[in-house]
């Protein structure tokens, strides 16, 4: 009799766990997919994120765009950020993290976020993980667009002719941004790679080709 009860109880636990696992995971995927679109300046994150947000019905958050909006409105945050951006340096973590959280909290309806230009340092990555954790969520994955440094310089100088962005106009500032990326931001890839969450996608090709590569990577997450 005892054996029968223990057998039934084992079977029940097995099915219960399987059921909640399947339901739990599919709900997580369906409702909350958070992605970091990663890569050096000028790797095409912004261009791709604008299309991906429509396809996957997610919210695109670019910290660079948020800073430029603040600068345009001459807010205290914008004035502080501009001094760093004009030199190709990173805005301090506390400022950036606070701004990012505010933006996320403005979208309670979101299916998920595409983070573009964030996190750019290890402390920003830790803050993002903790923030998502407090919401009972987690990052689905980081996808890095691979483009080499010399191609980046060419692309950014070209973008500078029309973007009106001060940080695209000078080769010295562009090279500083690449240096900052290699020193402070590239380690973010390893941080998520250690958690089995980082992937690389070829960032050279037509916009459509890269979009298709990114879409299939996101679908598989
Ligand atoms: P790009 O990727 O072409 O460098 P962005 O628009 O993402 O352009 O960023 C422009 C500038 O804004 C950066 O060089 C940096 O000064 C600032 N910035 C953007 N995101 C961050 C961040 N997460 N942390 C610190 N500074 C940032």
Tags for this model:
Rossmann fold, 5-stranded parallel β-sheet, globular, alpha/beta, 10% strand, binds adenosine-5'-diphosphate, 221 residues, 10 helices
Summarize, please.
The chain has 10 helices and 5 strands, in the order H-E-H-E-H-H-H-E-H-E-H-H-H-E-H. The protein is an alpha/beta fold. A 5-stranded parallel beta sheet has the order 2-3-1-4-5, sandwiched between helices.
What does this structure look like?
The protein is an alpha/beta fold and 221 residues long. It folds into two domains: 44-139, Rossmann fold (3-Layer(aba) Sandwich); 145-221, P-loop containing nucleotide triphosphate hydrolases (Rossmann fold, 3-Layer(aba) Sandwich), CATH 3.40.50.300. The protein has helices at residues 2-31, 45-56, 63-72, 76-85, 93-105, 122-134, 149-163, 166-169, 171-193, 207-219, and strands at residues 35-38, 59-62, 113-116, 141-146, 198-202. The termini are far apart. Mean pLDDT is 91; it is low at 25-30. It contains ten helices and five strands. Strands 2-3-1-4-5 form a five-stranded parallel beta sheet, with helices on both faces. The structure holds adenosine-5'-diphosphate. Adenosine-5'-diphosphate (ADP) binds at residues 41-42, 63-64, 67, 84-85, 88-91, 96, 117-118, 120, 124, 167, 177.
């Amino acid at each position: 009799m005892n054996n029968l009860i223990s057998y039934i109880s084992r079977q029940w636990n097995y099915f219960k766990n399987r059921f909640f696992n399947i339901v739990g995971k599919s709900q997580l995927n369906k409702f909350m997919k958070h992605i970091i679109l990663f890569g050096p300046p000028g790797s095409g994150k912004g261009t791709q994120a604008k299309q991906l947000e429509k396809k996957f019905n997610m919210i695109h958050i670019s910290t660079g765009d948020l800073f430029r909006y603040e600068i345009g409105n001459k807010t205290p945050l914008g004035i502080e950020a501009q001094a760093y951006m004009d030199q190709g340096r990173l805005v301090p973590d506390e400022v950036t993290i606070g701004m990012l959280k505010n933006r996320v909290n403005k979208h309670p309806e979101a299916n998920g976020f595409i983070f573009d230009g964030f996190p750019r340092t290890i402390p920003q990555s830790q803050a993002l993980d903790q923030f998502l954790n407090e919401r009972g969520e987690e990052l689905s994955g980081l996808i890095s667009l691979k483009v080499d440094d010399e191609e980046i310089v060419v692309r950014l100088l070209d973008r500078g002719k029309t973007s009106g962005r001060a940080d695209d106009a000078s080769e010295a500032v562009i090279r500083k941004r690449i240096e900052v990326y290699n020193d402070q931001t590239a380690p973010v890839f390893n941080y998520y790679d250690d958690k089995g969450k980082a992937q690389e996608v070829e960032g050279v090709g037509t916009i459509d080709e890269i979009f298709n590569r990114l879409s299939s990577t996101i679908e598989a997450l």
